[in-house]
Amino acid sequence: MKVSDLILGPVIALFGVLVMVAATLQPRPIFGSGYGGGFFPGFIGTGLLLAGLMLAWTGWRSRDTGPLLVMGAWARSPVHLANAATVIAALIVYILASGFLGFLITGAMVTFATLWQFTRQPVMSLAVTIVAVIVVKYIFQDLLLVPLPLGVLSPFAGILSWR
């Protein structure tokens, strides 16, 4: 799929502004550190804004007269459409279920489902899912001190701290 830089640039820039605004709404620094929950999203938003502006500028300078949107051959492939739908469904399921089920269960479910859709190898998908969920949990919750929802595993909070 090819989208004109004149369309894609402003969309990315606007998304960058939205990320920057959302970053300013995050809680202030915790534990005496110099940065809070919006520190890294602020950098990402700034990068998206600058990239979008540069893309729009490049598109404007080239004065491309071609179509604004050209769909690729993959857009007619059932497998590729199913892959795209799986990613979107995984994000929606995580957003809706992680508060109740918790990160470990929901993250494992969506990671396994996505990997299985992409690879069609259930044993490998399960192995990668287990390692990925443990690594992500350790990095975010134990090293970066980002609270991940425990959901139905709340009674086991002391066991799942891994410190």
Describe, in plain words, how this protein is organized in 3D:
This protein is mainly alpha-helical and 163 residues long. The protein has helices spanning 5-24, 39-62, 78-101, 103-119, 122-143; strands at residues 2-3, 69-70. The chain has a two-stranded antiparallel sheet with strand order 1-2. Helix 1 (5-24) runs antiparallel to helix 2 (39-62) and helix 4 packs antiparallel against helix 5. The longest helix has 24 residues, at 39-62. It starts with a strand and ends in a 20-residue tail after the last helix. The mean pLDDT is 88. Keywords: Membrane, Transmembrane, Transmembrane helix. InterPro entries: DUF1468 (IPR009936).
pLDDT averaged over residues: 88
Strand order of the largest sheet: 1-2
- What is the 3D shape? flat
Could you give the count of β-strands? 2
Distance between the termini: 46 Å
Level of helix content? 55-70%
Quaternary assembly: single chain
Q: How would a crystallographer describe the biggest sheet?
A: 2 strands, antiparallel
Q: Report the portion of residues in β strands.
A: under 5%
Order of helices and strands: EHHEHHH
Structural class: mainly alpha
Summed up, the domain count is 2
Taking all Cα atoms into account, the compactness measure Rg is 20 Å
Query: What's the helix count?
Result: 5
Uncertain stretches? none
Short description:
Residues 8-149 form the DUF1468 domain. InterPro entries: DUF1468. With 163 residues, the chain is mainly alpha-helical.
Element layout with pairings:
Layout: E1 2-3, H1 5-24, H2 39-62, E2 69-70, H3 78-101, H4 103-119, H5 122-143
Antiparallel strand pairs: 1-2
Helix pairs in contact: 1-2, 3-4, 4-5
